Amino acid sequence: MRVLFLGDMVGRSGRTAVWQRLPGLIRDFRLDFVVVNGENAAGGFGITEEIFRATLNAGADVVTTGNHVWDQREALVFAPHEERFLRPANFPAGAPGRGSGLYTARNGARVLVSNIMGRIFMVPDLDDPFRCVEEQLAACPLGEQADAAIIDFHAEATSEKMCFAHFVDGRVSAVIGTHTHQPTADHQILNGGTAYISDAGMCGDYDSSLGMDKEEPLNRFLTKVPRGRFEAATGPATLCGVGLDISERTGLAEAIAPLRLGPRLEETIPAFWR
Amino acid sequence: MRVLFLGDMVGRSGRTAVWQRLPGLIRDFRLDFVVVNGENAAGGFGITEEIFRATLNAGADVVTTGNHVWDQREALVFAPHEERFLRPANFPAGAPGRGSGLYTARNGARVLVSNIMGRIFMVPDLDDPFRCVEEQLAACPLGEQADAAIIDFHAEATSEKMCFAHFVDGRVSAVIGTHTHQPTADHQILNGGTAYISDAGMCGDYDSSLGMDKEEPLNRFLTKVPRGRFEAATGPATLCGVGLDISERTGLAEAIAPLRLGPRLEETIPAFWR
Amino acid sequence: MRVLFLGDMVGRSGRTAVWQRLPGLIRDFRLDFVVVNGENAAGGFGITEEIFRATLNAGADVVTTGNHVWDQREALVFAPHEERFLRPANFPAGAPGRGSGLYTARNGARVLVSNIMGRIFMVPDLDDPFRCVEEQLAACPLGEQADAAIIDFHAEATSEKMCFAHFVDGRVSAVIGTHTHQPTADHQILNGGTAYISDAGMCGDYDSSLGMDKEEPLNRFLTKVPRGRFEAATGPATLCGVGLDISERTGLAEAIAPLRLGPRLEETIPAFWR
Amino acid sequence: MRVLFLGDMVGRSGRTAVWQRLPGLIRDFRLDFVVVNGENAAGGFGITEEIFRATLNAGADVVTTGNHVWDQREALVFAPHEERFLRPANFPAGAPGRGSGLYTARNGARVLVSNIMGRIFMVPDLDDPFRCVEEQLAACPLGEQADAAIIDFHAEATSEKMCFAHFVDGRVSAVIGTHTHQPTADHQILNGGTAYISDAGMCGDYDSSLGMDKEEPLNRFLTKVPRGRFEAATGPATLCGVGLDISERTGLAEAIAPLRLGPRLEETIPAFWR
Ligand SMILES: [Fe+2]
Ligand SMILES: [Fe+2]
Ligand SMILES: [Fe+2]
Ligand SMILES: [Fe+2]
Ligand SMILES: [Fe+2]
Ligand SMILES: [Fe+2]
Ligand SMILES: [Fe+2]
Ligand SMILES: [Fe+2]
């Protein structure tokens, strides 16, 4: 089964590019399931209900988030009603919305998607991501309730990302890192059959600082004195993510490869999709 | 001119792979200049004089480091005498050793190499990397004393890496990130002509946590209680780095592409070297 | 009932002063219960079994710890067998030893003592201290199983300390902060009857950096280059802690005042003990 | 000569209490010089020009700040014109305003006041505070251009505060810590004659979280989900600071003692002022 995961959409540039390209990708490559991280879709900070819906309309099955999930306060309102909207599962019990869900892919497979946040260098400091995933997999094991399991692990430190992936290796289809906004090239299938990449990269303008206009971030580094607000960069976006091929028999990964489409990075499409 | 930059060698597995492969790479691709980051070469922690020399013997022109530079105390002794050994330049004045140097490449070009450390999430907290590079470029501008300028920017946060690169864009040949030990796929030539990649990746065993045996790091994440020491992983290493093509006329970059050689990641060699 | 809490003993100087003075304090002021934080008792790093026993012999009813608890590896061995040794309760389930206990004071009162670690700026990142204390108080509520409840909240940030104390205000006898090694003067009885102080201070040499010889810490701040090890300071120690008067009827605090004995700080003994 | 230093005024409650009590304190105790930290005076976040002026009118000679200095954007406008307004001196060169000044006390003494920020756990990451103070003392040594020298060291970690004080011991009259908003009881005169306290405490409502209404900070600790804004607490403020007696001959400290006035903490006035 073919899955596409797109990293953090940043601002108008990023979300527009996703909305424009995603329907064609789904059609051309007969994708069964699509996950998009939307934590920076609204000007770089959070996501609105309108953007969330438009992303579903473009073909996403699930929208995941991260530390920026509540930057737009309206997310607190729509999160509880939207099955396809995920915030990190390791928020303390009682947080609005949900951290994981079981969805039906276009090929009929039941796909567990979970959004979990790391703790190293991250704010806010959520509950233990390792225990969180352990509980989720106990409740919904791959091969029983779920035919595939995809985790958006939203974290900064590569050590935490690697150890998290080793911890669930053989028990989920894929661990896809997000948050750093730069795609990594370390995609591999781990020993137990779980696909892994440290970071999917962002969908945004790569002539920027993390998709944000670089002027004010650079000013802060140089002077430590704020001069203005952080604004999303407005140049054309490059889409970054990964394509997965997941065994319909075992739920484990048969292939993982990056997808990059746009003006700034080396373009690539998973060869096993062709 | 052809430059190869190899990311953090980790442990015996990583350094041995570099020593074995580097002479062939230099010969086969007629490389003019080679930089290798060696901060984790001795069991993951620092570098010894013997390892440093063996790395030069294998063909490295310069060995750079980072936050782990003094983990092997003997580095404090040999650093001051070794022109080709760099520690981060933004250590306070008076630190042992040097942070940059001007070297002659095999094509006769004078190459400025600078090793600078970021500050976000990094220990120890060194001097301002932006001011540091500003001073270095004032003292040794590209196109005057230097025919090429390569910066190993050893840092964690992608925002700091991107802003640093934009800051020196057009004034150096390349900004190569190190420290996260995972290669990124965001290599590009910035608007001003500077080649950039967020992280070169490591030269080490990618079935690991940052090149270290994954058992104890994973134990720490799970239990928070130390059970043993951190040891370098012993599986076969994958070499990660970037190839650069630098204009002999302008000193700016004409091409940047990843190099990955080994069993775990997708292998690639810069196409423009063939 | 009269309780004495002594802050982090640091090194030989600190522990020796505690051992020498504690018996006299217990006798002279007819103390019912004594808690001592011992996380830095062994040269500044952790605690040995011998030091732990000697501290009990000097009159401590319970020895608490903090982030340094496992610095001496032997603590992993004796912790599980020692009822009167506490490590932070919010270590993940399965950690060696215990995080709280119910003890009988010399006046017959049943005293719950709990050792909990904060998360802001702290390593390792343990479980949520707020949820941890909630569970403890549910299992052993003040006025039912316990006649008094004392929490050693080992944390860095004053915001977390204050919020933690407000959270349990009226439900425990006292929240005593430790870890910063400097006594605060903000002791007060909160609105609900819980005694509070941000930090008890350390029992150690105050002509130092946190009880450690100041030469190497200062060297690190100045040069960022290690020159030697951190050693405990050897000058005479000042004892720092707080005295509590806890109602035998309600278990809430009737008085809190600092105790400081030694050569460097303004000496004081709780007036309500005389 | 008699100096009063008052810690961070927080919100209306804190600043009003300072304005009401300060004139009487100056008159009753014949104070020669007064420094007030104002970084949280405007609702907890920064300071306005009007508040700054009212604080001078109440008798402050200098208003210092810290990490919150630019929270009110108007501070960027008035800082450059106000000699008696200090922001941390270790902002990069070119920052608005000034970090130190030489002022004439009511007894005619020339008093150097310097505001310097620590780096451990602090944002933004400013220049090296140790080098900063070294340069200031080289330019304006105690006993030559200055008859007294008072440093507001705005920092989180007690290790950095202690080491900073030891570094300048004998070269300044006093190092007064600010930022943690809880007064410490570790005031002492160091071996070289410099008065020291880790933190002066705040001037604000101590039934709070750092002077802020405790509801939202506590909500964030419990749920990690924002519910509202941080607002200054509105209960009556307790003034916290220290009194200094500085030798007019040597510029070194002869005495340091806390001042605490208000409803929540143990009240005290320096005995040597009576
Ligand atoms: Fe993001
Ligand atoms: Fe994020
Ligand atoms: Fe490294
Ligand atoms: Fe590093
Ligand atoms: Fe301690
Ligand atoms: Fe501690
Ligand atoms: Fe403050
Ligand atoms: Fe502050």
Automatic annotation (TrEMBL), chains A, B, C, D:
Task: Give the signal peptide as a residue range, or say none if absent.
Answer: none
Q: What is this protein called?
A: YmdB family metallophosphoesterase
